[in-house]
From TrEMBL:
<dbReference type="Pfam" id="PF12833">
    <property type="entry name" value="HTH_18"/>
</dbReference>
<protein>
    <submittedName>
        <fullName>Helix-turn-helix transcriptional regulator</fullName>
    </submittedName>
</protein>
<keyword id="KW-0804">Transcription</keyword>
<dbReference type="InterPro" id="IPR018062">
    <property type="entry name" value="HTH_AraC-typ_CS"/>
</dbReference>
<feature type="domain" description="HTH araC/xylS-type">
    <location>
        <begin position="154"/>
        <end position="255"/>
    </location>
</feature>
<keyword id="KW-0238">DNA-binding</keyword>
<dbReference type="InterPro" id="IPR018060">
    <property type="entry name" value="HTH_AraC"/>
</dbReference>
<keyword id="KW-0805">Transcription regulation</keyword>
């Protein structure tokens, strides 16, 4: 993955069913403390830290970081000030649960996910989701002619990420909501090196895999999780999941929970 993940050894690991939190921080001294305070550092480095917070040892709200996921600010493609503003508003975003679940899975399973042909695509998906999370709470701060392809690209990506669970999400609907033609919509994703359909499918599969690995959703059926991510046909979901990850949804769930103490 283009992003890098660091484990913070002193942080406690939560037990089953305990939801962790995520926080944003800019590179600078005391990132762990900054993350706990829910405010970004004023450092000058071009690195954004997406911090996974573990529960405090006394059972209180999440405190010290258990993992830190680093993303280059230029790769993220949003201004520094947007990160600072978003840091205090993450929980207000409808994308927060999606991104949190994704980050939990990516960081906890980092050793297994760091290799293979899918690693680069997973890193790009992670960056896209973090960008969409930021834009969902601060709006679209990019100026026309931005090197990443302009504000329309970021706006479209944010819209798609926010509506991934809708089984009726369609190119026509996405284009209309973002005031572009379907031809322009397809061109946006072609410029990103993928297709609209592939991007939606990959993000939905990643979301479903994160839910299958979540202790809090252990009692949800595979079919229910598939439906919650816009897959109407459980058999089709299982086939697509197998092609993407080399295992069935049930096997994935068993393997993840078997590794937990």
């Amino acid at each position: 993955m283009h992003t890098s993940v660091t484990r913070c050894a002193d942080a406690p690991e939560p037990g089953p069913g305990v939801d962790r939190e995520i926080a944003l921080a800019l590179s600078g001294p005391g990132v762990d403390a900054v993350a706990g305070a829910r405010a970004p550092a004023r450092g000058t480095s071009r690195v954004v830290h997406l911090v996974l917070l573990a529960p405090r040892r006394d059972g209180g709200p999440a405190g010290r970081a258990s993992h830190v996921l680093r993303i280059d600010l230029d790769e993220l493609g949003v201004p520094v000030e947007a990160v600072r503003v978003a840091a205090g508003r993450l929980r207000t975003s409808p994308l927060y649960p999606l991104v949190r679940n994704h980050v939990v899975h990516v960081t906890v399973e980092a050793p297994a996910l760091a290799h293979g042909a899918a690693a680069t695509a997973l890193g790009a998906t992670t960056v896209d989701l973090v960008r969409a999370l930021i834009l969902s709470v601060v709006g679209d701060p990019q100026a026309p002619g931005d090197a990443r392809g302009g504000s329309a690209t970021a706006r479209i990506q944010a819209y798609v990420a926010a509506h991934l669970r809708d089984p009726d999400l369609s190119p026509a609907r996405i284009a209309a909501a973002n005031a572009v033609s379907t031809r322009t919509l397809y061109a946006v994703y072609q410029a990103l090196g993928t297709s609209l359909a592939r991007s939606i499918l990959d993000q939905r599969l990643e979301g479903a895999r994160a839910d299958l690995a979540s202790p809090g959703r252990r009692h949800h059926s595979v079919a229910a999780i598939a439906r919650s991510w816009g897959f109407r046909n459980p058999s089709s979901f299982a086939q697509q999941f197998g092609r993407a990850f080399g295992t069935t949804p049930r096997q994935c769930r068993r393997q993840v929970h078997a590794r937990r103490p």
